[in-house]
Amino acid sequence: MAFEVIPAVPMAFGRLVADETSVLPLPNPLAAAWHWMSVGARRIHVEDVGGCHGVQRGPVVPALLIGCRTGPAVLQVGGGIHTPETAAMYVSHGAGAVVLRWAWQHPEQLAAIVDRIGADRVVLAVSQAEAENVSTFYAWERWQALGLTRILLVGHFHQRGLFPSQQRLLRQFTGAGYAVWVGGGLRDLETVAALRDAGARGAVVGRALYQGKLPWEALRALAVPEAGNDRGVTA
User: What is the pLDDT of residues 39-48, one digit of tens each?
Assistant: First the structure.
């Protein structure tokens, strides 16, 4: 099964959100996105941190998407996407997918977004705590009825390897027919390898990449390309 490593580009107010210990001299989100594409990334996760906290949107994310249109990577965008209009705007500017968290908790909004942009452009972001909640479990049927099959499982993956509860969640999602990507505090190669071996489709890595704790080439060596793709990172 293919397994991809996805660099994150967290941004707010037009700036790359990376802490002061970043070892990469990347002045802005566009430079960061092109840096990751230049070293082989074929999918990039753009997170509008300001949008997550209700900050009024500006033109920065659409400008980033336009600036990456000629690049080889698919860009997926998350962060405070609540309406079909916002989702459609991102897709029209070049996003390959939108990542929804608030919207899946509001079935009518979720259905409207899917109707507007299509299920194949939607990834559902679900926290580990939410996934373990019984009410979320009953939402799975609604998601499948809408044709939604992709999950970004967000949790605390700081440790080496996986906890039994994390392994169980991966089994539950994959057993129900979902493709699962994982993100949240990843900082150990053993954990990324364990995710791959447990059936995850990929890992979203942010801070540890910018800090140099997870070297890109070492992460790329863990990737399993799709059939016919020899780049080492799946599209």
Answer: 999 999 999 9
